[in-house]
Amino acid sequence: MKPGDIYLATICIEQFRWAKPKRSSLDLDAFIPRIAEAGFNGIELWEFHADKLGEEALKRARDLAAEAGCPITVLSTYVETVPAEENVAHRRRLNDIARVLGVDAYKYNITGGARDEALRFVRDWAAETDALFLCECHGGTMMEDPAAAAEIIRELGPERFPAMLHTLTAGDEEFERDLALKGDLLRYVHVQSAGSRRERIVERVKRIGEAGLTLTWSIEFSPPVYEKADNETCFAAAVEDMRFLRECLG
Questions:
Q1: Neighbours of 179 (CB within 10 A)
Q2: Beta bridge pairs of residue 135
């Protein structure tokens, strides 16, 4: 993961991202060269774009991405961090996928349950892999409050368990509080709907630079995602957002 790089989160181009159960409609092999050609530096792969693939298909995707100069760098995961047999099996399946893909990091959330049990689950998971753990700090999790998140990230160790900025396009108060409390713990940014919030994105990128932070970025959502548009429409919007963000970063 290189500061200043911009990745495409493949959830951004999945029309069935909110389906129940979650499922993939993406032809990953076909999209990987296009993601690279568009100018993205890497890929944040949605777990459900990988979980049904066998080892040979995962290797093929890994090699396609590496040859295109746009490696699959982050695996976006949805494991529950509650100690239970099915959750341990889930994380070990993710470890197998990550090992084949050769990712640098997991995107994850500390989802619930008792605090100490959840942190023990995360530590046990980290002992099974060399990857970084990027905490999304999503709303509805115990990491939603930035003060609580900063405390937990420091307890886990920010070099291995850095935080993500998930409030780039949120209200001013929420964004500024996140930046103030988690600033030195941040490594990665999720960008939502940059094309429809351009003035705000320009201001926020400037604030992040003023804070002395050099982060890695990922286009997570573009406006057509919320309209459940098809993959092609979502991809076109994500490319547009990436190009605008690159202009902002300079």
A1: 20
A2: 108, 163
DSSP conformation class of 209: H
Least confident of 72-76, 151-155, 165-169, 211-215: 165-169
Nearest partner of 17 among 218, 228, 169, judged by Cα: 228
**Residue pair 174/167 in contact by the 8 Å Cβ criterion:** yes
- The DSSP element (H or E) to which 62 belongs, if any, is helix 55-67
Fold annotation for 6-249: TIM Barrel (3.20.20)
- CA 100 to CA 207: how far, in whole Å? 38
* 158 φψ region: left (φ > 0), alpha (ψ -120 to 50), beta (else): alpha
Per-residue pLDDT tens over the stretch 95-145: 999 999 999 999 999 997 899 999 999 999 999 999 999 999 998 899 999
Tokens linked to 179: 């930046």
In sequence order, what are the residues at sequence separation of 6 or more whose Cβ sits closer than 8 angstroms to the Cβ of residue 94? 47, 75, 77, 79, 106
Q: Which two tokens stand for residue 85?
A: 């047999």
CB count within 10 Å of CB 123 equals 14
**CA–CA separation, 189 and 192 (whole Å):** 10
Which amino acid, one-letter code, is at 205? V
Q: Residue 169 has what pLDDT?
A: 82
CB neighbours of residue 177 within 10 Å: 16
| SS3 track for 150-190 | HHHHHHHCCCCCCEEECCCCCCHHHHHHHHHHHHHHEEEEE
pLDDT band at 180 (very low <50, low <70, confident <90, very high): very high
Q: How much is the pLDDT for 223? A: 79
**What SS3 class is residue 45?**
strand
